[in-house]
Amino acid sequence: MVVGLVETAVPAAKSTVSSAVKKPTTLSSDPIINVARGDPTIYEPYWKKMGDRCKVVIAGDEFMSYFCNAMNLCWFLLPELDNAIRTLHRVVGNAMVDDDKFIVVGNGSTQLFHALLYTLSSPDMPEPINVVAAFLLVQSYPEETKFLRSELYKWAGDANCYDRDEPYIEVVTSPNNPDGSIRGTVENREGGKAIHDGAYYWPQYAPITSKADHDAMLFTFSKATGHAGTRIGWAIVKDKVIAAKMVKFIEVSSIGVSREAQLRAAKVLGLIADDCRNPDVKGENFFEYGRRLMSERWGKLREVGMKSNGVFSLPKYPRDYCKFTGEYTDSNPAFAWLKSKEGLNCENLLRDESKIISRGGPSFGVDSTYTRVSMLSRDVEFELLLERLAAVKGTVNGN
To answer: SS3 for 32?
Structure first.
């Protein structure tokens, strides 16, 4: 059984063993734990508790047209989702969404990333525009940039080493994936353009210190709320021409975005905003819940790290004042950036000694003493992860 990557389908017929007492999961009962990917199943209990508050009912004759609003620049964007996105950002205070900003919805933020690469490049240039990002970088950026073998743009590596007197696009993720650091642009020379990815700039992961106000910003439903399967992302764009070109890209590549998915996203985002604005609501709002849960997980992980006899260590993050919570808070990134002691390949060590599948440092442009571990798995998987990490002895060099 591979925990966290492959799930076994449940047959429709009643299982003959369904009433049996389930044995607790232990080190030996599940051979492999896969925490290489950031599948945000951590939030399932919260949304299960919400029940009918998130239910969406769609009649058979609804959403049959391609168009949501033919008069809107993003003609496939549901007005309900546009309003929910702007409302939630205003409530949280993590991004500027004034009425002069344009919202472009996409099939996840990956499609919007491609739309921005297309938009910020030019068919009139003699050479493809260079795309860079500062190492450590999100592992998917190089792969996604190279995937289509476009004649418009090309991957050019580490922004810290970029010294060409040529136009470029810099991709900035803040908080960063994999290490959770807060970032800005490295290159600020003439002819440069930037894409700012704010996937993890939400209160459960980091203090909200200011409203981001960049030319092009990406956000994703999957990391904000945990609904990765809905495949909704959005861009906040200042320039109308850039927004229009992005819309054209999505029109050509997928003829818009599912209106059913947008309606679900609007319902969930609206519920979160309402609960945040109404402190009298019984129980925690979503961000309070998420921040508490992430803080508890990081506390447990650091406790294991301190007892590991130096086999691995974790980054330390400065506390900062969060304008959303109104207090000083810690960063609790979605991923743990583990570093093993010198001479050990951290990814191989975890795999060979503890059967933990992670994503090693070379995937992010650094050496093999580092590896990335997801903090977003289900409770049973996370507890197994802690159990396995606590048992690591560092006796396998993994090189």
So the answer is: strand
